UniProtKB/TrEMBL annotation:
Keywords: ATP-binding, Kinase, Membrane, Nucleotide-binding, Serine/threonine-protein kinase, Transferase, Transmembrane, Transmembrane helix
Pfam family membership, one: Pkinase
Signal peptide: none
Regions crossing the membrane: 6-23
Coiled coil: none
Entry keyword annotation includes Translocase: no
Residues the entry annotates as binding ATP: 85
InterPro entries, A to Z: Kinase-like_dom_sf (IPR011009), LRR_receptor-like_kinase (IPR051564), Prot_kinase_dom (IPR000719), Protein_kinase_ATP_BS (IPR017441), Ser/Thr_kinase_AS (IPR008271)
Protein name: Probable LRR receptor-like serine/threonine-protein kinase At3g47570
Gene name for this UniProt entry: LOC140021744
Family classification: Belongs to the protein kinase superfamily.
Domain of life: Eukaryota
Domain Protein kinase: start-end pairs: 57-337
Length: 342
């Protein structure tokens, strides 16, 4: 259970809500799964320690900023490295976002979801201590870092994310919709394994619910049409976002790239490309003139892009689900390894 270090009715209510949620979610017996992690033993952390190990939450320790706060790197005396997400309580929705992340993350245990270590909360300070990811975000690897991810690495990361989403959607009797999946919310550990992070606007679907309505909007370009127009979210909304990320990962084009207009978007650009000219949309960094396996690589990425189109149909009922997406990606990976192995 997350350790909250201050007293008071607000904190007590938060503790009780987390405890009740964990009890509710544990009612369902989970099938054995190699991706599940043992329930974590949460450590203690005080505001003073967090301030000390981040040098007073200095800019030199800043890892990144999000909708409701900033994330800092902190190194403890024992050498352990933490990622400390400090919520900006001046922002509307920050309190709710903190409560939601505590509620969701305290219940989840999967190798492809960012692990929560503890939380620190008072009336004027709220922070989550998370597992540190030394290789940063997928967004940085695609658009900032000079190093190029190989096809196999990109495919592996996408399978990691699909595993995490499949767990969110089907791991409990109460499905969880992430609602804001995008490359900056996919973090990479020291082994380049992908982890989904930032559950600040996640939604838990109640008994019998498959669709809920929300007023909270996520990042444009990645949200499904029914989410952006009507505020309707479901597990299919996450599938749509995942499909857009698949496209971006293998074309290196953001959905809001300047080349796209009202008449042309990322999905349509890929859809209108014939099988014979698919190389025109694929990230050029993935190919080299001397490479004898170019055609096999094109075949692999073409299959991935076709899958991404199945994830991003306008009508949510026509989209495939994450179990199907994960199975398809695993088959593509096996075929790719077979094709390029001498």
């Amino acid at each position: 259970m997350i350790v909250l270090l201050t007293s008071g009715s607000v904190i007590l209510a938060l503790v009780i809500s987390i405890f009740l949620m964990r009890l509710k979610l544990r009612k369902k017996t989970l099938a054995p799964n190699q991706n599940l992690l043992p329930m974590a033993t949460f450590e203690r952390a005080s505001f003073y320690e967090l301030r000390q190990i981040t040098n007073g939450f200095s800019e030199s320790n800043l890892l990144g900023s999000g909708s409701f706060g900033s994330v800092y790197k902190g190194i403890r005396e024992n050498g352990m490295v933490w990622a400390i997400k400090v919520f900006d309580l001046q922002l509307e929705g920050a309190f709710k976002s903190f409560d939601r992340e505590c509620e969701v993350l305290s219940c989840l245990r999967h190798r492809n979801l960012t692990r929560v270590i503890t939380a620190c909360s008072s009336l004027d300070f709220k922070a989550l201590v998370l597992e540190y990811m030394p290789n940063g975000s997928l967004e940085k690897w695609l658009h900032v870092n000079r190093h190029v991810l190989s096809i196999r690495q990109r495919l592996g990361i996408m399978i990691d994310v699909a595993c995490g989403l499949e767990y969110l959607h089907y791991g409990y009797s109460m499905p969880i919709v992430h609602c804001d999946l995008k490359p900056s919310n996919i973090l990479l550990d020291e082994d380049m394994v992908g982890h989904i992070c930032d559950f600040g606007i996640a939604k838990l679907l109640g008994d019998g619910e498959s669709v809920v309505q929300t007023k909270t909007l996520a990042t444009f370009g990645y949200i499904a049409p029914e989410y952006g127009l009507e505020g309707l979210i479901s597990t299919s909304s996450d599938v749509y976002s995942f499909g857009i990320i698949l496209m971006e990962t293998f074309t290196k084009r953001k959905p809001k790239d300047e080349m796209f207009t009202e008449e042309l978007n990322l999905r349509r650009w890929i859809q209108e490309c014939s099988p014979d000219s698919v190389i025109q949309v694929i990230d050029a960094d993935l190919f080299h003139p001397e490479d004898k396996t170019v055609q096999r690589k094109i075949k692999c990425i073409s299959s991935i892009l076709q899958l991404s189109l199945s994830c991003t149909t306008d009508a949510p009922e026509e989209r495939i689900n994450m179990k199907e997406v994960l199975g398809a990606l695993q088959k593509i990976k096996l075929q790719f390894i077979k094709d390029i192995t001498p």
